[in-house]
Design a protein that fits this description.
Number of helices of chain A: 6
Radius of gyration of chain A: 19 Å
Distance between the termini of chain B: 46 Å
Shape of chain A: elongated
Radius of gyration of chain B: 25 Å
Oligomer: heterodimer
Strand content of chain A: 5-15%
Strand content of chain B: over 45%
Strand order of the largest sheet of chain A: 2-1-3-4
Largest sheet of chain B: 6 strands, mixed
Number of strands of chain B: 11
CATH class of chain B: Mainly Beta
CATH superfamily of chain B: Macroglobulin (MG2) domain
Largest interface: A-B, 19 and 19 residues
Strand order of the largest sheet of chain B: 3-11-10-5-8-7
Helix content of chain A: 55-70%
Distance between the termini of chain A: 64 Å
CATH architecture of chain B: Sandwich
CATH topology of chain B: Immunoglobulin-like
Order of helices and strands of chain B: HEEEEEHEEEEEE
Structural class of chain A: alpha+beta
Largest sheet of chain A: 4 strands, antiparallel
Helix content of chain B: 10-25%
Amino acid sequence: MDSILRAAAIYAGLLLIMRITGKRSLAQITTFDFILLLLISEATQQALLGEDFSMTNAFLVIITLVSLDIGLSLLTFRSSLLSRLINGTPLVVVENGVPLRERMNKARLSESDIMEEARRTQGLERLDQIKYAVLEKGGGISVIPKQQA
Amino acid sequence: MAYRDLEIDEEMGFQRVGWRLERVGWVVFALIIVAALAGLCGPGPLSSSTTREGSVEVQYDRLLRLEAQVTLAVTGVPEGGELHVTLSSAYLEDVRIEEVIPEPASVETAADHVVYTFAAAADAEELRAVFVAKPERIGRLRGEAGVEGGPSVSFTQYVFP
């Protein structure tokens, strides 16, 4: 019983913390983001397992976490409000080559972040070649280039 | 905002509320860090407490964490080369004593408390016994520590999950 409650509490706590932290922080953009992710999992591990290192406990915890995730995905699939609450919404940050500054500031996104993605995924050179750039729910940036005339 | 050829479920109203809540969350994070540094989330400056009752002094933490080691120190005046420190049995059911420093010469169980007998040097004016304990239950713990036949101190501790 204890391990199920622990897993549920940690799942809920991490969900809340990650939502507050913002989508970009742990999207593994820099090497340090990746290290931070490892550190967080390390810090969680003890509280998740307690002093019980049995296989029964490990599987109970895993099954609980996975079940919560399935449950949450079912709920967010049915309710768009819940989906927006938990996963957030995508955000357009560049429109027809014009950066939407206010949105970028709020989302802590710089022009160079967008250009990096534009170079990497589309091979673009300048901001004005971008038709749309969208900050997706997961923290990634999608770049849609203007059609070449 | 509507985009001519971009099919997207963007929702600015929701996004703005989200940003505001995000910033409220950051402030809450900062407050939690400050509170933890001050000792409001477990042992720390604001949590530690010392209570004196006659010749007995008990030093303890008011806020503990489940399964995290803490110390409880009882200082008393030895008589005839011995100090008999008592701890209430109810308290000992809620915490696990990992270590007692110095090593007690004997441990005896009485009706509602346990007596730890420490040997003291003949000229010792005070003896300080330290109990290293791990709380095993979440919530409010009540304990009583003192010297047998002498004064005792009642204390309350709160254990965080």
